[in-house]
Amino acid sequence: MKLPFAFYEVKYLVEDNAIRYERYYKFNTFEISKEDYPSFKEFIERITKEDAQEIVLKQ
Question: Where are the beta strands (DSSP E) in the chain?
Fold first, then answer.
C-alpha cells in the first residue's frame, strides 16, 4: 500500500524449512490533515487486518 503520507508492505517467505513474515511501514509525516484522515484511518485498519491474518500449513 502506498499513500502520500505512508507506505506499507508485507512479505511471506519460505526459507530453510521456516516461514518468515516481514512487514515494513514508513510514515512520511507526523501530522495527518483532516482531509487525509479517512484515508489514514483505512490505511491503519488494513494494517490491523493484515496483522491478524493466520497462516495455514498443509502437508
Answer: 2-3, 6-15, 18-27
Q: Who's near 12: CB < 8 A, 6+ residues apart?
A: 19, 20, 21, 22, 55
- What's the one-letter identity of residue 55? I
pLDDT above 90 for 15: no
Kindly report the pTM of this predicted structure. 0.68
- Is residue 43 within 8 Å of residue 21, measured between CB atoms? no
Domain boundaries, the chain: 2-51
* Mean of per-residue pLDDT scores for the chain: 87
Helix H segments across the chain?
37-51
